[in-house]
Amino acid sequence: xxxxxxxxxxxxxxxxxxxxxxxxxxxxxxxxxxxxxxxxxxxxxxxxxxxxxxxxxxxxxxxxxxxxxxxxxxxxxxxxxxxxxxxxxxxxxxxxxxxxxxxxxxxxxxxxxxxxxxxxxxxxxxxxxxxxxxxxxxxxxxxxxxxxxxxxxxxxxxxxxxxxxxxxxxxxxxxxxxxxxxxxxxxxxxxxxxxxxxxxxxxxxxxxxxxxxxxxxxxxxxxx
Length: 224
Prior knowledge:
- By secondary structure, this protein is α+β, with helices and mostly antiparallel strands.
- The protein has helices spanning 3-52, 72-75, 179-204; strands spanning 67-70, 80-87, 90-100, 108-115, 120-127, 210-212.
- It folds into 2 domains: 1-52; 55-212, no CATH class.
- The protein is built from 3 helices and 6 strands, in the order H-E-H-E-E-E-E-H-E.
- It is elongated, with a radius of gyration of 24 Å.
- The N and C termini lie far apart (87 Å).
- The mean pLDDT is 86.
């Protein structure tokens, strides 16, 4: 065998061994960290849930009991998690991941917790790109506006009043920013509509199931 060919084969072998060693190292690192990463994600999700779901409302693991819902017409995104809270073995609340797709600067993501009677337990914004100093008053840390949904339900206020005041509704808008609160109010109302229409199916599904709903709510006439 020519020296040049021998050197080429040896270099190829060393490269292959190095690749195998790197792959083994990556696989080992992933195996060691995947449980830690999964636990960190779960803790972050629990902390978010605890903001909208009072601790005395459940005694199960709402995340483990959750389902995936594909209902873009209702919840504003292709796929959403719905966490299911139980108390004493009975369904107590649903916590929905929803999106207001029509925010001023882009989609607004939120969590909406709804009790068995269809009343809002809490709403929090989880992500948005609204204008600082104007639209970001939807954040609980900046104003009390988001708390105005607590204990509200379909019919309280009347359906035609599930709008901002500028549109003849119940909920205040912000000075210089109407599109942002308008989008959030509509997203919360659609979440309540979803629970009213499909809550029983969501509650009855097996944990981890994926449910598909191709219908959509009938929104009130647009503001004039």
